[in-house]
Amino acid sequence: MKTIGFWLFYIFLWFLTLLPFRLLYFISDLFFLILYYLIGYRKKVVFGNLQLAFPGINEKEKTKIARKFYHHFCDQFIESAKILHLSKEHLDKRFVYENPELFDDFYKNHKSVVLVLAHYGNWEWLVNMQPKIKHRFLAIYKPLTDVHFDKLMHRLRTRFLDPDQVVPMNSIYRRLLRDHKAGILNITWFLVDQSPPRDYPFWIKFMNVETPFFQGPARTARRLGQPVVFMDISKPRRGYYKAKFTTLVSDPQTMTEEQITQKYVEAIEQEIRQRPELWLWTHRRWKHSAGSQQLAANSWQSSVGSPQ
Fold first, then answer.
1. Where are the domains of the chain?
2. In which element (H, E) is residue 234 found?
3. Which DSSP string corresponds to 77-93?
4. Does residue 199 have a pLDDT over 80?
């Protein structure tokens, strides 16, 4: 039954994404009305997260951010699915890299790079990055539990990449170690705002909350001597994004893993505070943080009348 449901969804999505963007964004607006006003998809999580991240703003301001986020969230879903039919030339016009030449010196000096970014803007459109750089681009992904949707996401992410450039997170370090020994130069894309297990040892203040972080990117940078570069994504207008690269750590072996992690956490927070609606607020990022569940519950109770 689940298989039939998936294929019905896939056929619907395949035909839907044949439509031009102007019609897709009209449909996205309809999705927003349904998702926000009728279903209330993860509103408790979103408003709880906003309360934790912005304790000083009032309910009207939180609602304004939430509505903008849900609009962007629906757009991002449509845009990501559109990769099924999107040409590389069209994607290159909509997702622009401001300074890819930043990586040239690293390549000349035979250095692979740890590229860190958050669930911000439209990270799925990074699949067009390979032709802009000399390194081999590697994207890390966490396999989904549903095998059909996992294959769909893998297909989208390999639309403009070779299948071996999309690497499961549980095997990425072995792959990087192998490539390092073979002299293969990679730029490895780490989404660093994932929520780790409850007993994770490294905690840092992020968006006003003591938050656990994976140290995989920092550990990789130190052990393999790879510089750390942050990708800041902006959204000049609907359906268009611009990526700018900034070197956070040139020589990772002069810093601790905690210091490296601090660097990219600060960069992510600065990015989110500039345009908070572009971050993935439906993610239960603070489910393991002290006091977060109570704060989230209080936030929802106090705002149930306002998010309409």
1. 17-303
2. strand 228-237
3. HHHHHGGGT--HHHHHH
4. no
